[in-house]
Design goal:
- The chain has 24 helices and 15 strands.
- It is 46% helix and 10% strand.
- α14 packs across α16.
- The protein is of the alpha/beta class.
- The chain is elongated and about 115 Å long.
- The strands form six sheets. Strands 1-2-3-4 form a four-stranded mixed β-sheet, covered by helices on one side. Strands 5-6-9 form a three-stranded antiparallel β-sheet. Strands 7-8 form a two-stranded antiparallel sheet.
- The structure holds one RNA strand.
Length: 556
RNA sequence: GGCCCGAUCGACAAGCGGCUUAAGUCUUAGCCCUCUCAAGGCUACAUUCGCGGGUCCGAAUCCCGCUCGGGUCACCA
């Protein structure tokens, strides 16, 4: 009678090493007390998902905080869904958000002693562990076809029993080793399944760092651990990789909670200690059609792709800060107390995590982003705007690169002060707001638009006032002197120099000084809204102001 | 449907049995200030914590049931 060792040798004749060899190959890490080893382990199936970035950020942050290790592992075990090149993209995208791994897959190479960090290259390691599991009688070949499985499911549904491959329904677990060997020798295709000892009537207590003790049902499913293509399934790869890579803390989305019992049993079967788990809330969005909350969807929601926010011009730091407010409710208070603080000084903690998924809130992101942009010094702002514009806004990129000093003067209006202007929520807001500063653009705008002059002021008055303005303009005066000049000029042209005076007798005046100043603003910018006029005038310079005013007067 | 997780303002949330006639931030609305705008200042917006029961002198806070929302039930991760 054949033994399980015979079966294991038949299936993996070339595998000579054992887990003892693996223990030597991947010795325990030499890390200080309390240091956490965390990881980000995506599949190369597309762009960087906002939820993935959230998870990666949290993993990265915990490793940094505890002076541990954060590594990147590529989970490319699903060849059907894999999209070539996306592994590299993921690394690059993460880097843009400031998340760089201490070790692991780097796109074109690997760093670290616990690799390979790409699962498709770890075949030998998985096989060693599986061979051992077979020898122990905790794994077996399953010859069921897709049809067999479909059939089984139908029967189970009809009988209203829990679907799946377990217990009496796990047909292949009941074969004798001789039968198994015979079928393998006959060339029947098979997968390897884990042989569960659990019972779904039992409950197990599992600790989650965020949720505390959870009461879960014990696993009894004989899950597939090695697929017919020779690659492991997620559950099994998680077991092997996180064990041998020395992961101490697994951070992942809460959708994994239901498979936790599988993972727990897998670790027990190997006699290994499982890592700590922290199941993170998933970022939600309101479905436009149903109005219900649901997970951010790769297919339906543009917000699911981090590139969406990059393209939209959100500063990277702002997006990260928003994600942090979702992660820890006390982060926002910290941010307000430390507006210029380094995020590394904030300690992320599990007990401040919310238990249910936050609704993605664009207005909140906008607000955080606006605050951040307003409080940036002009050099940082310019540098980041340039980086963004290079990829997404050629017009802006042109402004910045052709005359950086001018651009900096423009965006520095009312910046770098106690209560700075808050004009921009994102870098994409910049171009439309500063366009009029550029002469050729101004000319185009002047041609295209009807100037929004107050219709109660006659063209004659406007003309006379503007002409006089140009004739008497003196930008060598300081702002308050200049402002008084304007009031005086206004009075000369029938504008009251005091609001109350005007209000008391509106018919006596053409308006008050706000109205005449508005004429200048409109003439030089084509818009009734612009930052402080004096600053704008200074940047444009006397000649250009005169040119613009003359152009406008000519059209009246 | 089974199992699991969760439930405080429109959103994010504080709250951990008496200090809560429920913080703060965003949004929204109004007022003030202001050369326009962006801001800034002030004010308003949950008599109530999904619902119903209990425990207790006392509950948003503990327990039970219901309801609702989410997740999961693959040779996908």
């Amino acid at each position: 009678m054949a033994t399980s060792k015979d079966l294991a040798d038949l299936i993996f004749p070339d595998v000579k090493e054992t887990t003892k060899d693996l223990d030597k190959r991947f010795p325990p890490r030499n890390l200080p007390e309390g240091a956490e080893v965390t990881r980000f382990a995506p599949s190369p199936t597309g762009f960087l998902h906002t939820g993935s970035l959230f998870t990666a950020m949290v993993a990265h942050k915990f490793a940094k905080e505890t002076h541990g290790i954060y590594f990147f592992r590529l989970e490319d075990t699903d060849q059907k869904r894999e999209i070539a090149g996306t592994g590299m993209d993921l690394v690059k995208q993460l880097k843009r958000f400031g998340i760089v791994a201490d070790e692991g897959y780097c796109g074109d190479h690997e760093e670290g002693q616990y690799g390979p960090y790409v699962q498709s290259e770890r075949g030998d390691i998985y096989k060693i562990v599986i061979k051992e599991l077979i020898k122990k009688g905790r794994a077996y070949p399953c010859f069921c076809t897709k049809d067999d499985l479909d059939q089984l499911r139908l029967v189970q549904e009809a009988n209203k029993v829990i679907p799946g491959y377990y217990g009496e329904y796990a047909k292949c677990r009941h074969y004798t080793i001789d039968e198994e060997i015979e079928m393998i020798k006959a060339g029947k295709p098979y997968v390897i399944r884990f042989k569960s000892k659990g019972n779904h009537l039992n409950h197990i207590k599992v600790h989650d760092e965020i949720r505390g003790d959870m009461d879960l049902t014990e696993n009894d499913q004989d899950i597939v651990i090695l697929k017919s293509d020779g690659l492991p399934t997620y559950h099994f790869a998680h077991l092997v990789d996180d064990h041998y890579m020395g992961t101490t803390l697994v951070t992942r989305g809460e959708e994994w909670i239901s498979s936790l019992p599988i993972h727990i049993e897998l670790f027990e079967a190997m006699g290994w200690k499982h890592p700590k788990y922290a199941h993170l809330p998933v970022i939600m969005i309101n479905d436009k059609d149903t109005g219900n909350k649901r997970k951010l969807s790769k297919r339906k929601d543009p917000e699911a792709a981090t590139s969406f926010f990059l393209k939209a011009g959100y500063p990277i730091q702002g997006f990260i800060e928003y994600l942090m407010t979702i992660a820890n409710s006390n982060f926002e208070a910290w941010l307000m107390a430390n507006p210029k603080g380094n995020m590394d000084d904030f300690n992320l903690s599990f007990d401040k995590f919310s238990l249910d998924g936050a609704l993605f809130d664009l207005p909140k992101l906008n607000n955080i982003s606006k605050e951040l942009l307003a409080n940036m010094d002009k050099d940082t702002f310019t540098a980041q705007a340039e980086e963004w514009a290079k990829d997404y806004d050629p017009e802006l990129y042109g402004y910045i690169t052709s005359d950086k000093a001018k651009f900096e003067r423009i965006i520095n209006i009312e910046r770098e002060q106690e209560k700075p202007r808050k004009d921009y929520e994102r870098f994409s807001d910049v171009t439309p707001k500063i366009r009029f500063f550029y002469n050729d653009q101004y000319d185009k705008m002047l041609k295209a638009a009807k100037l929004p002059f107050n219709e109660f002021i006659t063209p004659e008055i406007i003309k006379a006032f503007l002409n006089d303005f140009v004739a008497t303009l003196d930008l060598t005066h300081d702002e308050s002197t200049w402002f008084n000049d304007m009031k005086t000029l206004g009075v000369k042209h029938g504008f009251a120099n005091d609001r109350k005076v005007y209000k008391a007798n509106p018919s006596q005046y053409n308006g008050w000084y706000a109205d005449c100043i508005s004429l200048i603003r409109i003439a030089i910018s084509t818009s009734a809204q612009a930052p402080k006029l004096y600053d704008v005038l200074e940047i444009l310079g006397k000649d250009e102001i005169a040119r613009r005013i003359n152009e406008v007067v000519a059209t009246l």
